[in-house]
Amino acid sequence: MATAPLRDDQRIVIHFDYDCFYASVFEAEQPILKSLPLAVQQKQIVVTCNYEARRRGLHKLQLIKEAKQICPDAVIVLGEDLTKFRDVSKDLYLFLRSFVWGERVEKLGLDEVFMDVTDMITYNAALLNHSDLAHSFFQLNLQDPTVGFAFDASRIYGPTYPDGAGDMTEPDASQPYLKLLIASHLAGYLRNQLEEQRGYTATAGISTSKLLAKVVGTVHKPDSQTTLLPPYAATREHGESNVLNFLDSREIRAIPGIGSKLSRKIMSYIATTNHDVAEDKVTIRDVRLSPGMGPSLLEKILGGPGAPRDIGMKVWGLLHGVDNTQVGEARDLPTQISIENSYGHLDNFETVRKEMVSLATRLVRRMRTDLTESYDDAEAPTGSASQIPRSETKFRWLARPRTLRLSTLPRPAPGTNHAQMRGYSRISNSAPLPQYVFNLDESVDALGERLVRESATSMFRKLHRERSVWNLRVLNLAVTNMVEVAGDRKHNSGRDIGKMFLQRETQHGHIPPETDENLTIAPAASWEDSDEEDTDMPCIPCPICGARIPHFALVAHELYHSSCE
């Protein structure tokens, strides 16, 4: 067997996963739903449900018809419009990000956030009084040592893997244990603040990489956290690696970074070489200890045309819990904003026009939500925000897109086979974005109607002539080529946490959300299994209807088609 890859465990990463995110958004609006079985519907599928519903037998990707049979008194709410979920997701992201020094705060989908808190943890580890660890203080602000929270540095906060390893006798700031201990208290503090200030609970994982933090966070759910403790590598002093002990029992398809396609290839290989292993139950240990297994063999199994370079070495590292992927830097301005819808049948212009008006209205609304900031948030001195009524707050544009783009995807003719369907690709037309769109005094509905009347209609006619025959399955309207025009959105290290708390109290936590595109999302090939859907994530077209579906939602989408047959 090949040697294990070298580890680099200098970083400290916290992964947050909001509990039952879709359902919790509805529960925040109507608290009475927390005690009722609640399911969120998209198409004819349960995309998520709360824990009361799960207790009664409901689960994700379940057909609505089946869910009603199992739990007749379930409260089923529509989750087709993602606007409210996007807005809440952005607000929670900005809330968590406001505590962290530096730029390494990465959003994944709608319901997950990675934080690289190495600098904060290293700084606070140096402040510890080793003679009185039980009365320690975590400093949240570099400029103000009074901003922070008290904690007990003699023990870890929350559950751990392995279980029952909570106390520390002789701390050493150079050892990962101490830094992970401090990070467990930061994670607990942020989770508590998230619930107290925003009304949402989250589950956290604490480790030294995105991979390990994400996976260890699944051990204790919901509303909890887990810290993966050292030793991370087997040594003479420590005969076993907690990382390998933790990962070995998990199925290969449960590891982020090894997508479904790669998992199937690996499982197929293991099942053909080890008849004692069921193909759908292949564990990390089964793969890691398979005869001859190593980077070279994995390259043969997974390589080929279109395969990523050095895929064997990468997967070999993931099997050992080695992931050197950096937490992505937060970005403050999007590259584009895109609104899209898919249709079963769209072949007359009047219907197309109505749909374009709907898309344009949503697009303008997203632009205002994502690309503006209030004057008060940006310019008012500390404490003055409470003196300005919310209704009088003025907004300004942070960025202005220059280009409007309309895209369509034709529906294949009946009888078209899979190979022929590849010829049906998206077509698009672009034009300068009219300046009247940036008039904040004009209603969103009026601007959407005008944008279609004066711009989108002629763009559509360039794609589909008036007398030609067409049938569309996708319409997409987007703005691109962003140009920054105002505001300093750089996320500063050691920001004024005290002012931030004051603004939360006086403005009831309202922060103009940012667009999904400006929150760094890892490529689907690396991180494709977020629990909740975000339509701005990298997607693949459905071979049946052409709708662009996130990888992790493809199974639910296929179930939808089967239910319609």
TrEMBL record:
A biological process from GO: error-free translesion synthesis
Residue span(s) of domain UmuC: 13-259
Pfam families the UniProt entry points to: IMS
Segments traversing the membrane: none
Domain of life: Eukaryota
GO molecular function per UniProt: damaged DNA binding; DNA-directed DNA polymerase activity
InterPro entries for this protein: DNA/RNA_pol_sf, DNA_pol_Y-fam_lit_finger_sf, Rev_trsase/Diguanyl_cyclase, UmuC
Protein name per Swiss-Prot or TrEMBL: UmuC domain-containing protein
Lineage, top ranks: Eukaryota, Fungi, Dikarya, Ascomycota, Pezizomycotina
